[in-house]
Design goal:
single chain; 257 residues; mainly alpha; 74% helix; 0% strand
Length: 257
Amino acid sequence: MHSALRDRLWAARNQLALAFGFLTILPVPQVDYQPGALGRAGRWFPLVGLVIGILLSIAHWGLSHLFPPLLVASLTVTLWAALTGGLHLDGLADCCDGLLAATSRERRLEIMRDPRTGAFAVIGLVLFLGLKVAALAAVPAALPVLLLAPTWARYLLLWVARQPLARPNGLGADFAAGLTRQTLQWAMLLPLLLLALFPSLYSLTAFVLSASSAFFLIRIIHTRLGGMTGDVYGLLVEMSELIVLLTFAARFVPPVG
């Protein structure tokens, strides 16, 4: 029995290291990669998002004592990108180049595999990062949104990764192969806990809007690409985080006066 428990703890440790090593630049122990291991580590993706959110919240709090709100938001978003190594922004850029091209599915997939950056990618990144900075600067209280956005986005990533793929191989296919319904159920616990800790119309609306947007993104991707890719996963994470930020920046109740 002790041996079985030790094996489970060791497997959880390896999954945690793999999840943090893949999604962030934080130093973690090296683990031997096995087929499907990244998908099995998906249960820890929301926890990775929460750790990112905690680090961003600490940085935002410290910076807010030194700089005005717009500069604080700019520096926080810069740290946000740095902590992930630009992983999801790279997917966003590739999707802008591929999805917006007026060409065939096959050609779009080729464009997205091309390491060169096109005009659509540059425009998309500039507009997206500008929106992210402006939304964060407009949020009245940064703590809830900085914890919820990265956590919820990385849960939605697991849900989207269960959809049919555009390519039968590659990292995206290996990731999807390791995902199970049990993994999604386990991963859902942390977002639900955060929703309970920060109960508000904003939190609930942010979750609903980002999930609905993910659904519409899936439909668009199936039409234009024929299935999911690793770049699409990056696009989804960035889009979901932005939607959460925009929701908390919105004014559901008009200001008095």
